[in-house]
Write a structure and sequence with these properties.
This protein is α/β, with parallel strands linked by helices. The protein has 10 helices and 15 strands. A hairpin with a 5-residue loop joins strand 13 and strand 14. The two termini are about 35 Å apart. The structure holds adenosine monophosphate (AMP).
């Protein structure tokens, strides 16, 4: 008998809560626990494995888990080249090379011959090799940003989201060598033999991530403004136009990029739109 599909997710750290809310928003009903290694999702044939974020790529690569949620930086570090099934739109960060403020180094090339401390030695070495930089990589588990102060390294390669930790530690960023966000990855074996089941999970999670990037826009407008409004709204296909009881007026429904709303509003108002509602979309399945 084939076992239930397994999805490995972070049991602690930065990606833990955001991953759990993605799964809940996708409608998965499960108990979140710090203590258990795995739980069964109540309403779907899926087991969740709660594991360390940095172990997820390995567990998916060796088939212990069929699917996993992890950061692209960790995938790059692991070097397993797992298929990425979806970018999940959270856990955004950058792997950045930085030097003490007083350093003479201005660009990545200037790190040639220097000592570079990082918790991402494999990714750093690979990217440096690609760019022809020969540096001595000093592997540290944590507190990478204090390495130059301690005299352990001349520069660092570390993850940042805002960059404020680097500033506080007197460091100056010289280059971003990788950008990262959380992704859903799959084991090649599961993708080959259980594609219908893995597709269901991919569809459920991308429905949420796609929905989060969009807004449902409703507005009323004079019927005579419809073509102008249609030109303003770069909708998902054509907008829906519904006549109102007052037949001089229509309601226009559309789906637009969440980030574009504030730029659209002045033009829509100028075109005669009013009673504008902007709603979140829980799930979007194109
Ligand atoms: P953690 O388990 O807290 O060490 O973080 C796991 C993952 O969170 C990292 O590998 C990144 O993919 C992601 N992440 C997002 N923002 C940051 C950040 N500012 N610093 C470190 N990791 C981050």
């Amino acid at each position: 008998m084939t076992r239930i599909l397994r999805l490995a997710i972070p049991n602690k750290g930065r990606l833990r809560e955001t991953t759990a809310s993605l799964l809940s928003d996708a409608g998965l009903d499960f108990e979140q626990s710090d203590r258990t290694l795995s739980v069964s999702v109540r309403n779907v044939d899926l087991d969740l494995l709660f594991v360390r974020t940095e172990d997820i790529a390995e567990l998916v690569a060796d088939g212990t888990a069929d699917l996993g949620i992890t950061g692209q930086d960790l995938l790059a570090e692991d070097g397993k080249n797992l298929p990425v099934l979806a970018e999940l739109g959270f856990g955004h960060c950058r792997l950045v090379a930085a030097v003490p403020k007083a350093s003479a180094a201005e660009k990545l090339k200037d790190l040639n011959g220097l000592r570079v401390a990082t918790a991402h030695p494999n990714a750093t070495r690979r990217i440096f090799d690609d760019r022809g930089i020969e540096a001595e990589i000093v592997t540290l588990r944590g507190s990478v940003e204090v390495a130059p102060k301690l005299g352990v390294a001349d520069a660092i390669v570390d993850l940042v989201s805002t960059g404020s930790t680097m500033l506080v530690n007197g460091l100056r960023q010289i280059d971003t060598i990788l950008t990262s966000q959380a992704v859903l990855v799959g084991s090649p074996a599961a993708l080959a033999t259980r594609s219908a089941e893995t597709d269901t999970v991919v569809t459920a999670l991308t429905a949420v991530t796609q929905g989060r990037r969009k807004r449902y826009l409703l507005l009323n407008a004079p019927a005579s403004s419809v073509s102008r409004i249609q030109q303003i709204i770069p909708g998902l296909g054509a907008p829906t136009v519904v006549p109102l009881a007052d037949n001089q007026m229509v309601a226009v429904h559309s789906v637009v990029d969440a980030g574009s709303i504030w730029n659209l509003l002045p033009d829509l108002k100028a075109a005669g739109a009013r009673d504008i509602l902007v709603l979140r979309i829980e799930q979007l399945i194109p």
